[in-house]
Write a structure and sequence with these properties.
mainly alpha; three-stranded parallel beta sheet; two-stranded parallel ribbon; globular
Length: 381
């Protein structure tokens, strides 16, 4: 449970960072919020992001901006839980000091983009032990066959999508944590009785597994879990600036391939200017034959609000240099307040981030405990 007055303290601090305006970066209008449910059955929204340090532009356009929009537009009785899913990060080896830094940077970024701890619960996954308890319980009903067909473990190990567990090389490389990753993800969602989960199109498969697992448990033990619905982000995947046929990612060796939310205006302009396009100096929207230029137009459309075709028509008689300059300015303008908030949060000496994380963990734990009491009673534990 939250301590008395803690929400007021949190909200006041956020207002001090934003000059009194906590809604400055909440400008997104994409898909409608999930339909309101009755007051007896309010919505519960959950989503999480792995701690890899400061998120990049693709993370923001595809997920974080949607979280903020939901926060600002959902019915007042909607409960929202947003988590740094640090246990998921352990599916690949981590250096302890680096992971600790990334957790803090990721948490600060969630607040910097506009999540308000007085409205949404923000917490570290590992601080709520019910996530792992339910993970084990769901593992007893999860389908090995279903898990073997999922793409997450194959892509992480750089294996072809059609490979199976019959392949000895796949079995040798695969670790249980990576294979069972979707079960923990299902536990993250179901332990909070989430009714809606904002996800990108490429995560739909994982949410379908969560629904399948919930239904499997309910069939065996009774109606405990709701079947969560997806809120699909309208954003197309943001592609790498250096390899526009690949999704923007921190794993790319070239740092110029991605824009971080804390990049300076100068860095943003340099990265956009160096973005790979092609030998044609004109501007047109053709994702198949001109993926580099099309990627720039798609990113610009997120800030401009117009379609890629309309933007291409406007820049038809302009140069690629002109398009890149305008895009760099638009990104810089939008990310500047986020960068300033982030730097203020990281530099703060009052342990504010720790206070918010502890408050969030208490609230998330209390909510998860409601679920686990029902689950334990149902199982006879």
């Amino acid at each position: 449970m939250e301590s008395p007055g803690s929400s007021t303290l949190t909200h006041s601090f956020v207002r001090s960072l934003t000059g009194g305006d906590t809604k400055e970066v909440r400008r997104w209008n994409s898909v409608p919020a999930a339909k309101a449910t009755s007051s007896a059955n309010p919505q519960i929204i959950f989503s999480g992001i792995q701690p890899t340090g400061v998120p990049h532009l693709g993370n923001y356009l595809g997920a974080l901006r949607e979280w903020v929009r939901l926060q600002d537009t959902a019915p007042k009785d909607t409960r929202m839980f947003f988590s740094i899913v640090d246990l998921h990060a352990l599916t690949v080896p981590q250096e302890a000091r680096q992971l600790k830094t990334w957790r803090r940077e990721g948490f600060a970024t969630l607040l910097a983009v506009g999540l308000d701890p007085s409205r949404a619960t923000v917490f570290h996954q590992s601080a709520v032990h019910a996530h792992t308890e339910l993970f084990w319980i769901l593992s007893t009903v999860a389908s090995m066959g279903y898990l073997s067909r999922m793409t997450q473990w194959k892509s992480k190990l750089d294996l072809p999508e059609d490979i199976s567990l019959e392949d000895s090389a796949a079995r040798a490389k695969l670790r249980l944590g990576l294979f069972s990753y979707p079960v923990l993800q299902a536990a993250d969602i179901l332990v909070h009785r989430a009714t809606h989960v904002p996800v990108g199109e490429d995560q739909r498969q994982h949410l379908e597994f969560s629904r399948y697992t919930a239904n499997s448990f309910n069939h065996l033990y009774g109606n405990i879990f709701p079947a969560p619905e997806a809120i699909i982000s309208p954003a197309k995947r943001v592609m790498s600036l250096k390899e526009p046929t690949l999704k923007m990612s921190k794993s790319h060796t070239d740092k110029r391939s991605r824009i971080l939310l804390t990049d300076s205006s100068e860095d943003i302009h340099k990265k956009v200017k160096s973005a790979l396009t092609d030998s044609d100096a004109s501007v047109s929207y053709d994702p198949v034959h001109r993926p580099g230029v099309s990627n720039l137009l798609e990113i610009l459309s997120h800030f401009d609000g117009r379609s890629c075709e309309d933007l291409a028509a406007e820049y038809k008689s302009s140069s690629l240099q002109s398009l890149k300059g305008h895009l760099g300015s638009q990104i810089s303008l939008h990310l500047q307040p986020i960068r300033e908030r982030y730097l203020s949060l990281i530099a703060d000496k009052t342990n504010y981030l720790d206070v918010v994380a502890e408050e969030g963990a208490r609230t998330a734990s209390a909510n998860a405990d409601v679920t686990m009491r029902r689950v334990r009673e149902t199982l006879g534990l």
